[in-house]
Design a protein that fits this description.
The longest helix is centred in the last third of the chain and has 27 residues, at 333-359. The chain is of the alpha/beta class. It is built from 15 helices and 16 strands. An 8-stranded parallel β-barrel has the order 4-5-6-10-11-12-13-14, surrounded by 4 helices. Strands 1-2-3 form a 3-stranded antiparallel sheet. A 3-stranded antiparallel sheet has the order 7-8-9. It folds into 2 domains: 3-274, Alpha-Beta Barrel (TIM Barrel); 281-376, no CATH class.
Length: 379
């Protein structure tokens, strides 16, 4: 069983450390998304260490359909396969059930759907998801759930959440069985449950209370950033997080912008992940403490400054906005790589600053000054 030490609080904001078999995770933390076992943009695991990444996140469904979890198990598990000795979280495939809605059919036993790659029939239920994640040997496995659209009708959400709870109990039973097997890759694999309920406060709260009783290793808030407004998302967190165990990590799935993260930390979230920094980086958009820059703009053509003055990422330490813009315009992969490295460093470094601010009891001031600076910007 992992141990979560709550070091400090400021309001509802938590500063903690989560001890795992693959090392300690200082929280709040941003997990860097490497869907198929790599960060898009030619970023290596050595790079991840250089840019302060603590946790890498990979996708159960994608690794199952391409290369295959059984093959990865034969090769020693995902840590060995991708040469990464720090924590890995694998999501359960539940979000793909949501995003591949045209390709799937949900039943009590699980979900029948077709591969987005070749159309092959796939069945995934709680047991299958746990088996795939056990084969990968990730540090943290996510329970298999259904992610209903944020604005779905109440009756649909009630039925979906009830099924997600039944699935969670099956996940817990199967994970315990798998961890006890002699040939399991990681016998200390942890399980996080997922709170759902769309934007219905009472469904969210009842579900949080119910899953809190299962004494899992951590708890996620899922089904946000899928169609609701930022205000609705913050409201759901305010209502729901107090009913999740404070002595366990809380994880806000798939969120988000730097502002979303600051607001999430204030509402008691420990873990975050999002494709924004890497995806936007590949399109030439850089995150800075003065807001986002689009390096495709002509005004940067002769700008010899780094992306952000004072930034210690590999891109800013060595290259200019003008050169990176040139690479992007020329379609050179180095341009994408430098942008992704900068953005991930920005996120990881911001999390470190958040942790320092919490340590020193000045998170409220840090949050206010960051939001102000990102909103008003400068060149």
């Amino acid at each position: 069983m992992a141990k979560y030490d709550l070091l400090k609080t400021e309001g509802r904001a938590k500063r903690g450390v989560f001890h795992t078999v693959h090392g300690d995770i200082q929280t709040p933390v941003f997990m860097n998304v490497g869907t198929v076992g790599a960060i898009k943009g030619a970023v290596s695991t050595e790079d991840l260490k250089q840019i302060k990444c603590q946790v890498e996140l990979s996708n159960t469904y994608h690794l199952h359909v391409r290369t295959g979890d059984k093959t990865i198990k034969e090769l020693g598990g995902l840590h060995k396969f991708m040469v990464w000795d720090r924590p890995i979280l694998t999501d359960s495939g539940g979000f793909q059930v949501f995003s591949l809605s045209s390709l799937r059919k949900i039943k009590e036993e699980g979900v029948h759907f077709r591969s987005h790659i070749d159309g092959a029939k796939i069945f995934m239920g709680p047991e299958e998801s746990m088996q795939i994640q056990s084969n990968l040997g990730s540090t943290i496995a996510m329970a298999f759930d259904e992610c209903p659209p944020a604005l779905a009708e109440r009756k649909y959400v009630e039925d979906s959440v009830a099924r997600t709870t039944r699935w969670l109990k099956r996940c817990k039973t199967e994970m315990a069985r798998l961890n006890a097997l002699e040939d399991t890759v990681n016998p200390n694999q942890l399980l996080f449950g997922i709170n759902q309920g769309a934007v219905y406060d009472d469904i969210r709260i009842d579900h949080a209370k119910e899953i809190a009783e299962l004494d899992l290793d951590g708890y996620a808030v899922g089904g946000l950033a899928v169609g609701e407004s930022h205000e609705q998302m913050y409201h759901v967190l305010e209502e729901t997080v107090p009913y999740l165990p404070q002595n366990k990590p809380t994880y806000l799935m798939g969120v988000g912008t730097p502002a979303n993260i600051l607001e999430g930390v204030e509402r008691g979230i420990d873990f975050f992940d999002c494709v924004y920094p890497s995806r936007n980086g590949r399109h030439g958009h850089a995150y800075t403490r003065f807001g986002k820059l689009n390096l495709n703009n002509k005004k940067f053509e002769k700008d010899m400054r780094p992306i952000e003055e004072g930034c210690q990422c590999p891109a800013c330490r060595n290259y200019s906005r003008a050169y990176i813009r040139h690479l992007l315009k020329a379609g050179e992969m180095l341009g994408l790589r430098l942008m992704v490295l900068h953005n991930l460093y920005f996120y990881n470094n911001m999390m470190e600053e958040i942790r320092n601010a919490l340590d020193e009891g000045r998170f409220a001031q840090y949050k206010a000054s960051m939001l102000d600076s990102m909103e008003h910007g400068q060149d």
